[in-house]
Each structure stands twice: as C-alpha cells, then as structure tokens.
Amino acid sequence: MGKVRQNASQGGKSNKVMQFLRKYATITFAKSLLFEPSRLPVVTWAILLAELLLNVAVVLRVPYTEIDWVAYMQECEGFLNGTLNYAMLRGDTGPLVYPAGFVYIYSVLYFLTNYGKNIQLAQYIFIGIYLMQMFLVLRIYSKSQKVPPYVLLITTFTSYRIHSIYVLRLFNDPVAIIFLYAALNCFLDNKWNLGSIFLSLGVSVKMNILLFAPAILLFYITNLGYVKTMLQLAICAGVQLLLGAPFLLTYPLEYIKGSFDLGRVFEHKWTVNYRFLSEEVFISRNFHIGLLLGHAIFLLVLSRPAFRYFQNYCRLRQLQLQLQPQIDAKNAEVESQKRQKQRRRKQVQVGSQENEEKLSPDQEKFLSAFEKGLKMNSTGPPPVVEEPSEEKYSIHFDRCTQLAILPIFLCNFIGIVFSRSLHYQFYVWYFHSLPYLVWCTDFRTSVKFLLLAVIEFTWNTYPSTNFSSLLLHMCHVAILSGISRKLLTKH
Q1: Bridge partners, 91 (sequence order)
Q2: What is the pLDDT of residues 368-396, one digit of tens each?
Q3: pTM for the full model?
C-alpha cells in the first residue's frame, strides 16, 4: 500500500511539473514577456539584476571622470566647517548654487566616502541610487501598461550617457530625480503627504524638479480640491523652510540668491541644445524672454486637456473605491469555495487510504501484479489531468495611471524643449519618461525608435555640434507636436 501512495504522490508532482512547463516553458510565454505590457512586473526584476551586473562592470572597467564631485565635496566641507553664508561656500567650479537638501545629502556622502576620497565607494552608492530609481520608474510603467517591455529593455541597456551620468560622473541630478519618482509613486498610491515631502526634497537638491510643478499643482486641485491643495503646498514649503533654516536664520539673502537663482546664465560652451546659436544670441535677454513666453503658451494651451485627463483619473479612482469592496468580497467567496474543494479532496484521499489499509493479502497481491502489468504495457507517460482553476475577479484600475502620468511627463518635457540650455547631465531630467512620451504619439513603431535613437545620439555627441543640437530640437518638436495633436484633437 505504501508503494501505491508513493506512486500517487509522485504522479501528482509530475502533473504539477508538466502543468508548469506547459504554461511557462513556451515560445508564447517568452514572447509575452517581451511584448505584453502586463508582463513588465516580472521583467522588472530581470532588468534590475542585469543593470546591477552592468553597472558594476562599468565601475570596474571604465575609468572615472572627474567633473563636479571634488567641487561638491569642497562646498560641503565649508558647510561642515561652520560656514553658513552661501556666498562663502565655493568649490573649484564656482560658488554653491544648489539648495540646502543638496548640502546635507552630499555631506553624508562626504563622510561615507572618507572625505570624498573613496571614489569607488561613491560609485557603488550611485549604483544603488540608479537601481532604486529604475525600480520606481518601472513600477509606474507597470501600472500604466502603456509601453511594451522590449522597448524599455532596449532603451535602458543602450544608453551610454545615462550610465555615465550615474556611475562615472556622480552628479546631483540623479539624486533630485529619484525623489521626484518617489513622489509620483506616492501620489499614484494616494499617499499625498508623503509624496509632497519627496517632491520638496527633490527641489531641495536641484530646482529642475520645478518643471513638473504646474502639472502637479493641477493634479493636486483635481484630486484633492483647493483646501487640501493648500495643505500640500504648505507641506512643500515647510520642508524647504526646515531644510534651509540654518541658512535662512543667519544669511537669508545670500541663501535665497545662491540656491534659487532663476536668472543664472549658463556658459555657451557647455550647451547641448543651442550650439547652432552664436554666443551673443545665446546669452541675450530677449532670447531668454522668448523661450519663457513659449514655455508659458504651451503650458496654457495644453492645460485644458491635461485637466480633463486628471479629472478622468480622479473619477476612475473614485469608481475603484466603490467597486473594490465588491470585487474583494467576490474573490473571498471564490477562495472559500476553493478551500472547501481542497478539503473535500483531502477527505476523499484519506478515505481511500483507509480503505487501502483494510485490503486483504490476496487483494494486495492482485494490485501489485496489476501495477507490474501496467508498467510493462505502458508506452508513454501517464495522462496529465489538469484541475480546473478558479480565476479571480479583477479590474485593472491601475491602467488609469496613463491619465495622470502623461500630463506630468509632458509638463516636464515642455520645460526641456524651452530650456535656455541643456548640459549633458540634464539628460536624466527626462530620459526615463521618453519611451512613455513617444509611445503616446500616433507615429509608427519604426519612427518612435528612430526618435529615441537620434535623441540618444545627440546626447552622446561630445562636444555638441550645430548638427547634433538641431537634430535634438527636431526630435523634441516632433514628439511635442505628435502628443499635442493627439491631445487637442481628442479634446
């Protein structure tokens, strides 16, 4: 009888293995991992593991290039030595021009890296920052189910410039951006207070996060109303005041002028997007005012469709709150029925085992002979009996994330298009949103990949040329016009 039970147990395990292989060890499943956006949560872990190995290889094999790290350490060293006057905090590249959050974070890195001397440890820390950001980015893409996984695989692993910015340059832009994506994840999870804190922390590292502000303000209003929006703005302001308190209480004007200088003019030699302009035009006040007006006009024109996107997002989230309890109750009922079936099945098995134990010696001999006969006459594996599976009820409400993310990403992208100057480290400001923006156009897939490839080419052209900067503008205009046409036509 022991052999009978052992064979039955082995047969059950064999059936489960066969079911697993039939479901997952197939070309169809492999294709789904590449082409179905719903599979991205699974692919995410493969991307993160591969990125870990790739970035470690970059650190070990590619020489580090010093640009701003030493200057960062010098600026923080002045603060740690007791200097609170922003006008007196300087490095080799010039005065400190970032808010207080930058000072605190890089002061921590100063101590962790032996006063900034252990560059390789700093690189490994930035690998951790990169992986955390990729997780946050991919989580948003997974929720939206907009972009196929293969697109993200290609764009992520083929960007030399992005990997360079993170682990070979150690700029502060990635630190600011990771706070931004943490804030977006919190907003999508309805954790508004925490999201506002992260958003303000991002601004406290670098002001480029303010490019997202118009859309996020509209997002606050549509989801929370005016009163609660004021609360969120108060949280953002409170974080800035708290972080800046040591400087505001001692040298307030120097701090505000140094860390929030909106009129700062960049050097023409570092520009990526306006190389084709003469330096005279590049630094002219009229040129800057024209860009500002263009920025404001596009934000106003696209504010109406953005507002409707946010309204629809809010309505779908409200519908989720109404329907989710019913869905959960139905799924609980399904689970209960499933457990009852499993209990009955176990009872039947126990009963059969008890009956087996009561068999006479003659019956046992007959069963043994019968088993041998089956083995001798069998020409293949035993048939696999698939048990019916009870499917859970679900509505993928997270797909409404598309209605929230597009206006927010687009708002930042408009700021990029009309930026007075883009430097190479600024690529991280919008790189991770580019696949989403391009896939929101009606262009053919080949054109979408061409746009992404050309943008990557322009950011890898050093120093920038008239041709590369013109190409970058052409791609930006194409993406902006493609999305605008789609939004304005529908609304």
Answers
A1: 94
A2: 655 555 455 444 444 444 444 445 555 66
A3: 0.85
